[in-house]
Design brief:
Elements lengths: L7 H10 E11 L13 E12 L5 E4 L4 E7 L2 E3 L1 H4 L4 E4 L5 E13 L4 E6 L6 E6 L21 E6 L5 E4 L3 E4 L2 E4 L12 E4 L2 E10 L5 E10 L9 H19 L8 E6 L6 E2 L4 E5 L10 H17 L7 E2 L6 H18 L5 H16 L15 H6 L4 H17 L1 H15 L3 E2 L1 H12 L3 H8 L7 E8 L5 E9 L10 E10 L5 E11 L3 E3 L11 E6 L6 E2 L3 H10 L6 H16 L5 H11 L6 H18 L5 H18 L5 H13 L3 H12 L11 H13 L5 H10 L3 H13 L3 H13 L5 H11 L5 H4 L2 H15 L2 H10 L8 H13 L5 H25 L2
Parallel strand pairs: 1-10, 7-8, 16-17, 17-19, 20-21, 22-28
Antiparallel strand pairs: 1-2, 2-7, 3-6, 4-5, 4-7, 8-9, 9-14, 10-13, 11-14, 12-13, 15-16, 18-19, 22-23, 23-26, 24-25, 24-27
């Protein structure tokens, strides 16, 4: 990886020397199907780049490839061995106008980076797709791999007979070659190619624009043939059209990239990628079994997130990865904003408050937290910055910004931003300037507080009551962590709640206020009757950790399920989870609240999050001597809710999956076996193939499903999805030999694809197998630097994060992490960051366990 890195300083120097006029890329992918002599390794890539430069200057082009056949610069043949070092092509004595031609053999990928090649085990068909962000286009064609050297592209692709090929532009097959229309100026990392015998569905979006012109956008959606029976393309197109309507209504800049294809591809590392005209998604968004509305909502959110990128990111692109937030924060915010206003998922802000912000709060309390506008020194930094800060905190900050400047000023700022910088690159100041124009507010101080500092503030209410039981003064106290002491300006709503005669907990008073500094008085609520619950950040206007006064916390302990407003309820759950993570509420108390009130939760996304939190609380935050008791309580509670849930409902399915996740007793496992065999029934519960694997996972982990049982299930579901589940379940079995084999297959070998690496890691560490995993603490710290050096950055991240010994929550493991960090001060900064983050999670677990033990 070090030889593949590119620093910000190098990128700035090259951008000052060069301007790119255009690319022509020819790819010969006929080798993808092989010739029976083993898996193909390479394909031919011929790239022609026309660019301008300072006469006499020297620079370089990027290419990561096994070999280069020929290089010519301005008609002069260069010796590939002399100019190509495996990652860069040296370019000396440049002219003012240049033409570079590179003929290379590029490698097919098995790790989801560059040109990924997948063989479907179901029918043997081969599927290809590209994935580049932040800098893997250079694995497919030679180029200048940085966001600010934009250019138009023309792609030509020769593919196996019978295949279809897609790229960013409209394509047609002529004389055996797919030729694609030239793109608008775009960055290297958002070019794309998808090729293979994909199942393909089409539609059309039509709209009359404000000036009377008619806009027609061809729509396409594709997936592997094996998934075609499950592909609900009509719903994908519905959300797509609703999103295009929303963005045309609000952005006043017609979709600029011609067609709009969406490819659902196998073994994808990300959720999706915003390649203009050819968005790629992980195929898990095609549902093989019954799922809840939360899954459809998540898919809709991702579709709209990627669509927002067509403007924020593709039309206007950040100059360097420091300003990654200029695309990801906006897309994350606009995904929820458009989903709530334009689709059937009108409760999307509840999911945002409960799910997305939980990701942000965790990331913002890690030692690696950073401002939304980050300091990105190189590509390895950039890869790790696709995190909860850049996405979810940035989106939360934008939600605060809309409250600060007003909705119309925000949208008008976006409209001016697009028109002023179309097809160009920007930095923070470019956006702030248009928002100052449209809002009339000073954006400099807002930006410094929200975008250029790190950390999360805590807001706590403080009420003083008179003898008549009325509020004489209500204040909001703001605190910051010692490591990040910035107190920010917050636009918040403060809600007062009390129970009605019928027992419901409802809001009876609300005031919005600008919180600034350590203490802010909410004068508007003076004189109100005493509340049973004070909810700071009601309606979730700002980004903060909510705290409670003693009365409010006592009310929630007894009446959380009586809160009638689903967003308020979600905010309270999130606040209680933060108290648990911070070691301020015992894990057993949080689990008790879930057992008592989760059955009343109407929002299915919140319920699923509560299940995940409860399981995490038991695994990581509960005192070790209480875990067994807590596990029994969770399993009993989950089974109780499963049996009383409405037959066939999404709540029933959710409780069934949670019960499987926490089942451990002989009786629990026997019930899972019965559900699989059909000898046990729960009225309305359909045990489809995906649920079968969910039931088999815990059976394998507890030794109740052996290798033969799992092989029989794979024979029943001999598909790519089935293979991933099978590998995960195999690695989950409670055997020292199994763990050794799983470890070797991931750490000592690169034979597995990215998807199977992920599945093996998911099965390796089971909460019920802490003793089996203990010998791998020292092996982990011995191996990670070698893995980081030898493997792709994606696999390196998967191994370093996924195999960190989180389950060995003791001082010895913490000391081992500290010893590694001390001894490897000069290790790659990105690697150190990953270890430091996991070390911090472990220390947090120990603090929370101490809190729980003292309960």
């Amino acid at each position: 990886m070090p030889g593949e890195n590119l620093s910000r300083d190098e990128a700035r120097e090259r951008a000052a020397l060069l301007s790119v006029e255009g690319y022509e890329v020819f790819l010969d992918l006929r080798s993808a199907v092989g010739d029976g002599g083993g898996e193909p390794r390479t394909f031919r890539s011929v790239t022609t780049i026309r660019f301008r430069a300072e006469a006499g200057a020297a620079s370089f082009a990027d290419l990561v490839a096994p070999s280069v056949t020929a290089v010519s610069l301005n008609g002069k043949d260069l010796d590939p061995a002399a100019v190509f070092d495996g990652t860069r092509i040296a370019l000396d004595d440049l002219a003012e106008e240049n033409e570079l031609v590179v003929d290379a053999q590029c490698a097919y990928s098995r790790t989801g980076e560059g040109m990924h090649r997948f063989v479907d085990p179901e029918d043997g068909e081969v599927y290809l797709y590209t994935q580049y962000e932040p800098a893997d286009a250079r694995r497919v064609f030679a180029g200048f791999e940085q966001p600010d050297l934009k250019a138009p592209y023309r792609f030509e692709v020769r593919a196996p007979e019978g295949w279809t090929v897609w790229s960013n532009g409209v394509g047609e097959l002529t004389d055996g070659v797919w030729r694609f229309a030239e793109t608008k100026p775009i960055s290297t990392y958002i070019t794309a190619v998808v090729a293979g015998p994909y199942h393909h569905v089409t539609d059309t979006y039509e709209r009359v624009l404000a000036d009377g012109t008619r806009l027609e956008i061809p729509l396409g959606a594709m997936c592997r043939k094996g998934l075609a029976p499950h592909f609900d393309a009509d719903d994908v197109f519905l959300v797509t059209k609703q999103g295009l309507d929303f963005f045309h209504d609000n952005f006043d800049f017609p979709y600029p990239f011609g067609k709009y294809d969406q490819a659902f591809v196998p073994e994808y590392n990300l959720g999706a990628m915003e390649n203009p005209g050819l968005v790629t998604f992980r195929e898990e968004f095609i549902f093989r079994g019954k799922v809840t509305q939360a899954s459809y909502e998540r898919r809709a959110n991702v579709i709209l997130h990627e669509m927002a990128h067509m403007w924020f990111g593709d039309l206007v692109t950040m100059r360097w990865w420091d300003d990654l937030w200029l695309k990801e924060s906006f897309a994350d915010f606009m995904g929820s904003f458009s989903m709530v206003e334009a689709t059937r998922f009108t409760n999307g802000w509840i999911t945002f408050a409960n799910n997305r912000k939980a990701w942000a709060y965790r990331a913002d309390q890690l030692p690696s937290t950073h401002p939304v506008t980050a300091d990105i020194r190189d590509l390895e930094d950039a890869k790790l910055n696709f995190d909860g800060i850049t996405y979810a905190k940035g989106a939360s900050v934008l939600k605060q910004l809309v409250a600060y400047v007003g909705r119309e000023a925000f949208l008008e700022g976006a409209r001016r931003y697009f028109k002023r910088h179309a097809y160009g690159n920007t930095v923070l100041g470019d956006l702030l300037s248009v928002l100052e124009e449209t809002s009339g507010r000073d954006m400099t101080s807002w930006s410094r507080a929200w975008l250029q500092t790190a950390g999360v503030n805590s807001l706590t209410p403080q009420a003083i009551l008179n003898s008549e039981g009325r509020i004489t003064e209500l204040s909001v106290l703001q605190e910051a962590a010692e490591s990040h002491p910035e107190l920010r300006p917050h636009r918040v709503a403060v809600g007062l709640y009390r129970r009605t005669a019928g027992g419901d907990l409802e809001r009876y008073a609300r005031a919005e206020v600008d919180v600034d500094g350590p203490r802010t008085v909410v004068a508007e609520l003076a004189g109100e009757a005493a509340p049973e619950l004070i909810l700071v950040n009601d309606d979730d206007l700002t980004y903060c950790k909510i705290r409670f006064d003693e009365t409010s916390l006592a009310t929630l302990r007894e009446h959380l399920g009586d809160l009638t407003d689903p967003l308020a309820r979600a905010l309270c759950w999130s606040a209680l989870w933060n108290l648990t993570r911070d070691g301020l509420m015992p894990a057993r108390d949080f689990i008790g609240l879930v057992l008592r009130f989760a059955g009343h939760e109407s929002d299915i996304g919140v319920l699923q999050m509560l299940h995940a939190w409860a399981n995490s609380a038991l695994t990581h935050y509960a005192a070790p001597d209480w875990r067994e008791e807590g596990g029994r309580a969770l399993a009993e509670g989950a089974l109780r809710e499963l049996r009383i849930a409405a037959p066939g409902s999404q709540h029933q399915l959710t409780w069934a999956r949670f019960f499987a996740a926490v089942a451990s007793s002989p009786a629990d496992l026997q019930l899972l076996e019965g559900l699989l065999a059909g000898t046990a029934k729960i009225d309305g519960l359909e045990v489809d193939q995906e649920l079968r694997w969910a039931l088999l996972g815990p059976l394998a982990a507890h030794g109740a499903a052996d290798e033969d049982t799992l092989a029989a299930e794979l024979a029943r579901d001999d598909t790519a999805s089935g293979k991933r589940h099978h590998v995960r379940c195999l690695a989950a079995r409670p055997s020292a030999a199994v763990k050794a084999q799983a470890w070797a297959s991931v750490v000592e070998s690169d034979a597995l694809s990215n998807a199977l690496v992920e599945a093996t890691i998911a099965g390796f560490a089971q909460p019920s197998q802490r003793e089996l995993a203990a010998p791998y603490v020292s092996k982990y710290f011995d191996a990670i630097e070698r893995v980081w050096t030898e493997r792709s950055i994606q696999i390196g991240m998967d191994v370093v994060r996924g195999l960190f010994p989180h389950l060995q929550a003791d001082q010895a493991t913490l000391a081992a992490a500290d010893d590694w960090l001390t001894a490897h001060a000069s290790a790659a900064p990105a690697l150190r960051r990953l270890v430091l983050e996991s070390r911090d999670d472990l220390a947090r677990s120990l603090r929370a366990q101490a809190c729980d033990a003292g309960a």
